[in-house]
Amino acid sequence: MTLSETVSKKKGRPLAIPEQELDALRPLFPDITSRRGLQNRAYTIRALSLFYSSLGDPDEFRHFMPKECDVSAGKSKLPFTLLSQLGRLEPSDAVFAAREICKRKMSNRRAIEFAKNLRLGEMPTGNQVDLLRKLAKTFDDYVDSHECTASVALSAVESLSEIVSETCEVVK
Hints:
This protein is mainly α. The chain has nine helices and no strands.
């Protein structure tokens, strides 16, 4: 027996999705030829089945999930990249992420980043300066497009302060 016969020819990490599952998807997606593309579709299907069957109320995720009739009619497209990221998560994490995405009304790009960071455990640490910049920009954008008095602005900041206090108590 030679050295090359004793060394495994397979390299890399183990398959995340069994070959049989990918084989079953090939006829459904004949235009997708790569293993990675088929894996992404498998993750998308996992997310769709979670949101449509397990939870029973896909309207809860309407922020990023178009209605089936709109997709069938060609009026909307499924957010495949986001769904494949959500499908990579454990079901409870996927539901948590989907609810956060809807609650915060995240853009598709931000939602994909959020789901990926959640999966990898790489949520960025917030800091006061960055948060203040974002709040100031939001405030400036609002004032540029609305009449706003100092008392209205201060009242809104006071309400925001209460919301932050309640949120931080829950997170602790």
